[in-house]
Write a sequence for this structure.
């Protein structure tokens, strides 16, 4: 319904829902909802005599992680290799099949019916500071009560973890919040954070989509950041050199340090992270340095044996 409202406001005739084929339940749920709208006469030509034409198309995507980047997603829908596009032009100027296109995630569009019904001022009254409304939180299986929760922006992170998630089922030393490119939050920082973008940014982290993956107390940090580099190298679209080559070189350095007596030069690692952050075309390569820097800062003692003094 949120996409239908957005389409009416912008005058769009099509709404494209891009869902990975690996999520068949999501595809069937969305398809059933579209069928319900059609049965109510809210899709098709001249809807309810309004002169407004609109319909949905569901893409069962063989998606890669890079398709979370909006321009790579558009290329994927077009049947092209999902590579990040250089901007400008931006999608709102020249997007899908060179038509102006607005790209949003489901969580954003789902807020529209509430805003239309109760008003923007009411919605803005929920949350904290510039982070208004609610946030979906995903807690992994390391929590005693894993699942997806919806909380008001500004909710203390400790409340989410210890009240909703009911704590951890085993000792944890860090939370990776906001996906592979989000911040790596040590457990002692939990009490300093609230679920809003400003709180995370001011503490050097990233809320992102607010998934929470636990790093067990006995899992080596060196192997975890090695995994992050390997993940980025594997998922890179290959369009830009910093991401494609930099992530591979980072993985190689960390793997060599963890399996031999090789010691990583700190200035070399710093240069690599700076290059990834400033030179990558999108947030895949550009976001990788954040959790790595968090690890280097908060787990410096654990990582010291793998670096030159």
């Amino acid at each position: 319904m949120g996409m239908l409202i957005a389409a009416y406001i912008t005058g769009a005739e099509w709404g494209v829902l891009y869902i990975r084929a690996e999520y068949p339940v999501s595809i069937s749920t969305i398809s059933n909802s579209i069928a319900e709208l059609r049965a109510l006469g809210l899709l098709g030509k001249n809807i309810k005599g309004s002169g407004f034409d609109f319909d949905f198309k569901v893409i069962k995507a063989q998606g890669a992680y890079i398709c979370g980047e909006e321009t790579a997603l558009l290329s994927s829908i077009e049947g092209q290799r999902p590579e990040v596009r250089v901007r400008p032009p931006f999608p709102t100027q020249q997007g899908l099949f060179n038509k102006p296109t607005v790209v949003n995630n489901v969580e954003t569009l789902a807020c529209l019916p509430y805003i239309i019904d109760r008003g923007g001022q009411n919605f803005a009254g929920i949350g904290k500071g510039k982070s208004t409304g609610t946030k979906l939180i995903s807690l992994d299986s390391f929590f005693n009560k894993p699942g997806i929760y919806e909380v008001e922006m500004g909710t203390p992170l400790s409340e989410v973890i210890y009240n909703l998630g009911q704590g951890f089922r085993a000792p944890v030393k860090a939370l990776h919040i906001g996906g592979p490119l989000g911040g790596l939050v040590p457990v002692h920082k939990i009490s300093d954070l609230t679920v809003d973008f400003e709180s995370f940014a001011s503490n050097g982290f990233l809320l992102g989509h607010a998934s929470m993956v636990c790093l067990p107390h006995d899992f080596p940090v060196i192997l975890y950041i090695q995994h992050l580099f390997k993940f980025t190298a594997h998922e890179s679209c290959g369009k830009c050199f910093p991401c494609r080559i930099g992530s591979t070189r980072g993985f190689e350095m960390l793997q060599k340090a963890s399996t031999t007596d090789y010691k990583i030069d700190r200035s070399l690692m710093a240069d690599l992270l700076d290059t990834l952050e400033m030179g990558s075309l999108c947030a895949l390569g550009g976001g990788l340095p954040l959790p790595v820097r968090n690890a280097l800062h908060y787990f410096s003692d654990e990582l010291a044996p793998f670096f030159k003094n």
